[in-house]
Amino acid sequence: MFSKVLIANRGEIAVRIIRTCKEMGIRTVAIYSDLDRSAMHVRLADEAYSIGGQSAQESYLNTESILDAISKSGADAVHPGYGFFSENADFARKVQSTGATFIGPPPEAIEVMGDKISSRLAAEKAGVAGVPGRSKPVKNSKEIVSFGKEFGWPVAIKAAYGGGGRGMKVVTGPEMAQEAMESAQREALAYFSRDEIYLERYLTWPRHIEMQVFGDMHGNAIWLGERDCSCQRRHQKLIEESPSPNFPDEIRQAMGQAAVAVTKACGYYNAGTVEFLFQDGEFYFLEMNTRLQVEHPVTELICGMDLVALQLRVASGEELGISQNDIQRRGWAIECRLNAEDPAGGKFTPSPGTLTRFRRPDGFGVRVDAGYEPGDTVSQYYDNLIAKLVVWGQDRESARKRAIRALIETEIEGVATTIPAHLAILSHQDFVDGTHSTKWVEDKLDLANALASESQIANPLADGAGAPANSAASMGANSAVGTPEGEGQPDWLEGKVLREVQAEVDGRLYEVKLWVPDVDSQPGTSNATGNRPSRPRGSGSGAGQSISDGVVGVPMQGTIIKLLVEKGDQVEAGQSVCVLEAMKMENTITSPKSGTVNEIKVSPGDSVGPGDIIMTID
Ligand code: MV4
């Protein structure tokens, strides 16, 4: 086994690898850019070497400085993580030329799988079919037209050296062939410096299901179950789960065997993932990823195995030590990628910044792989994945509900996050039914108002609006407190901010979200993303107190029965100001503070809902 491993990566995956090394008694070496001098992976490693620079190109993609750090540290192995140099055969060879071991597959296998035409051929040779198509480059648009006639429209044009979805064009008919071909070639050239393209029949509603495989240097290979990664937008995955819902076990077994066949056919060892498209009961080889993937914890949770430990063992020459029959998969796992992005309007706008608050969820079946701690900064220069929330449950519904609970428990401030999108996905009937596809998030899911809609889907775990404070209804944690901005905002939201207020009704505390006039926003109290820098809550800040403490809000759906005060009246904190009929009961609503009734916005008989404003107190 190795004595010192250099992790040629940053963020959560570097942290992930360091943790397993520590458990195995292996010394860890971090590398860091100028921006990452005090990053979490550096704090956790035993040693750290500066590689300079800010951008990925200047730092984590700077071969010379990384090779320098390998030799200075005396590391006997290098783990590339994912992204950066993880699938670069030249880097793997250079590492090996220093005498250190590259913790990953042989460079030749990286090369075969890096070219999509050669990987399609390799799979074909192993008896595993890709989507019906041609495993040779296309030279002119006539070939596209004849392909469409033979296989049917639409046709997918793909970049031979592509990947990750860039360079793919969908051609719906012969008249589009020429233009689509040229544009695919231009894109392929721009992204991958090679303009070879090839054709496949285009599947219109596929699921993306991938199979985790593992091989050793002694010719053994196994499969560890699938992951369904159909919830993605713009080729960025959002949610992954295992097993895949509505996926018959005969197909799982066949897919596992197909994945192992591909693995063995290219002389593969270490961790790998074989990607498939699945539609109408058939699966088709798509590509093979020759690295440990972001979503590997989903497999770890259902298999009860540490995949990084296994990577280290097989890289040091050990046998897998487990056969296919030893693999037992149990229960269900779901991973949500918490990115520093604002999902409002489905735009997923990057939202770099400092995490002024980061409360990690906890409890049974909850795992958080984070690359950041409170006070750390998510830089615009790198991947903005803050953390992965991975939950385990004994079945899909338990896992789904646990994921929702844990997302609600998570509090991140200072940056916007994808949490509202995850809540929208996990509480959508299509997801519950498992009828979604790779196109579902972009084509069907409505994220038009991912921020504001949070108060509407107030409690996805229970029905009925309104729940006690600090329960599922208080979703204010998720940086949803902010200013409406961007296109598509209704006029009435202009100049308003989303605030969380507490309302006490008959001695029970409710938290609701309100769009209120941005009266108390002073320069410096609100950061660039419009989020409040801090959010007082709970008894520590005084029950009934809130950020916009002069607003009396409606905590639940109901009818206004009676107003107990008039405009201009003096009221005391805790004084009853309004009677609301809800859930067949009369509830008195109290003033959150002492002051003067400034404005009354409702009348007896009005139908009101959570988030409506009853009155304001000055
Ligand atoms: C496809 C396809 C439908 N039909 N190929 C996109 C990423 C690239 N590696 C392959 N991709 C696709 N190839 C055929 N013949 C649909 C996709 C696709 C997709 C695949 C996996 C995960 C997400 C996706 C999102 C859109 C399209």
Describe the structure.
A hairpin with a 5-residue loop joins β10 and β11. This protein is α+β, with helices and mostly antiparallel strands. It is globular, with a radius of gyration of 27 Å. The chain has 16 helices and 33 strands. Mean pLDDT is 87; it is low at 452-458, 464-487 and 520-547. α4 packs antiparallel against α5 (107-114) and α12 runs antiparallel to α13. The longest helix is centred in the middle third of the chain and has 17 residues, at 249-265. An eight-stranded antiparallel β-sheet has the order 14-13-10-11-12-15-22-20, sandwiched between helices. It has five domains: 4-103, Rossmann fold, CATH 3.40.50.20; 132-201, Dna Ligase, domain 1 (2-Layer Sandwich); 221-240 and 287-456, ATP-grasp fold, B domain (D-amino Acid Aminotransferase, Chain A, domain 1, 2-Layer Sandwich); 476-517, no CATH class; 545-617, OB fold (Dihydrolipoamide Acetyltransferase, E2P) (Beta Barrel). It starts with a strand and ends with a strand. The protein is 25% helix and 28% strand. Ligand MV4 is lined by residues 131, 156, 163, 165, 168, 200-203, 206, 208, 232, 235, 277, 286-287, 438. Residues 131, 156, 163, 165, 168, 200-203, 206, 208, 232, 235, 277, 286-287, 438 line the site of ligand MV4.
